[in-house]
Amino acid sequence: MSETKQTIDRKETVETKPFIYDYTLEQLQGWMKENGEPAFRAGQLFDWLYVKRVTSFEDMSNLSKPLREKLDAQFRFVTLSEITRLESKDGTVKYLFGLHDAHAIETVVMRHNYGNSICVTTQVGCRIGCTFCASTLGGLKRNLTAGEIVAQVVTAQQLLDKTEERISSIVIMGSGEPFENYDATMAFLRIMIHEKGLNIGQRHITVSTSGIVPSIYKFAEENTQINLAISIHAPNDALRSKLMPVNRRFPFDDVMESLRYYIAKTGRRVTFEYALIGGVNDRPEHAEELGDVLQGLLCHVNLIPVNHVPERDYVRTPREDIFEFQRILEKKKINTTIRREQGHDIAAACGQLRAKHMESAR
């Protein structure tokens, strides 16, 4: 066999190995059993991955050398190469990470007075097509594996370890639609909340969807305390379809019905995310209609002043109009907040940094 052929074969073998971060503790216990190892070895491995946060099997000193060699032969670590790091005046840090296949994803770490939160990405690009969002520029390239989502949190935590800080909350609101990558997203969540791992409190995690109705019903049956947010952005079917093409697949009424089921099933509050776009969906009549739709639901509305995206022709809602929108909703007994803006000086809108990178690469 030629040296070139051997090199190609080795490369293909490495690239087809699963990521070790793809596996939950229970799956690792199964792997240990299949390979003649006691189940407790999985707990030791989990500890090395998520508590000690090492980046090679060789460093796992309480595992036998043959076991370390077997792990190294069958698994690989996710490699996130830092392409760009932007740091805001408010402490927000936005990373553009390169993946093993030359794609790039964004991850954002935000500092709050109650701790550090991280916004993770679940897909390379997005096919949902929201007209105000930079993530959809270029469409969907592929889903991330559970391990590639996990690696964003682990990598950010490794960086915070240097200053003895901790990630205390997670929002799945980065690029992509997590409920179109449902199985990987759920595996990621199970790894994040495990008491032997990073042990992030379930109520400190929020997953956001654009309204993938079948997955909302599915999520209602998961029996978790993880928060659900829905990107709504309009009070009716016609306007929502203009802003969010996904509404043509899953109409407004169907989305609302699935959320009523979720609330009834779980007893948990739903957050409605509403991006305010100047002159489009931010008029008092929109607030009145939204308030009527949401009355009686266990919910909360998070108003988001839209970020300017150069490729989109939308403008921000004036400050006084934002407060008026909030007043109308609260008058209808709808709990409403205005999202605190962070990272406004560092391409804050979801997908902007990746879009700039793609344009630069072209």
From TrEMBL:
Main location: cytoplasm
Note: Reaction proceeds by a ping-pong mechanism involving intermediate methylation of a conserved cysteine residue.
This protein's name: Probable dual-specificity RNA methyltransferase RlmN
CC cofactor: [4Fe-4S] cluster
Single GO cellular component term: cytoplasm
Binding-site list for S-adenosyl-L-methionine: G176, E177, S208, S231, I232, H233, N307
Record flagged with keyword Magnesium: no
Pfam families: Radical_SAM, RlmN_N
GO molecular function, one term: tRNA binding
Keywords associated with the record: 4Fe-4S, Cytoplasm, Disulfide bond, Iron, Iron-sulfur, Metal-binding, Methyltransferase, rRNA processing, S-adenosyl-L-methionine, Transferase, tRNA processing
EC number: 2.1.1.192
Comment on bound cofactor: Binds 1 [4Fe-4S] cluster. The cluster is coordinated with 3 cysteines and an exchangeable S-adenosyl-L-methionine.
Catalytic activity: adenosine(2503) in 23S rRNA + 2 reduced [2Fe-2S]-[ferredoxin] + 2 S-adenosyl-L-methionine = 2-methyladenosine(2503) in 23S rRNA + 5'-deoxyadenosine + L-methionine + 2 oxidized [2Fe-2S]-[ferredoxin] + S-adenosyl-L-homocysteine; adenosine(37) in tRNA + 2 reduced [2Fe-2S]-[ferredoxin] + 2 S-adenosyl-L-methionine = 2-methyladenosine(37) in tRNA + 5'-deoxyadenosine + L-methionine + 2 oxidized [2Fe-2S]-[ferredoxin] + S-adenosyl-L-homocysteine
Organism from which the protein derives: Paenibacillus darwinianus
Binding-site residues, [4Fe-4S] cluster: C126, C130, C133
Biological function: Specifically methylates position 2 of adenine 2503 in 23S rRNA and position 2 of adenine 37 in tRNAs.
GO terms classed as biological process: rRNA base methylation; tRNA methylation
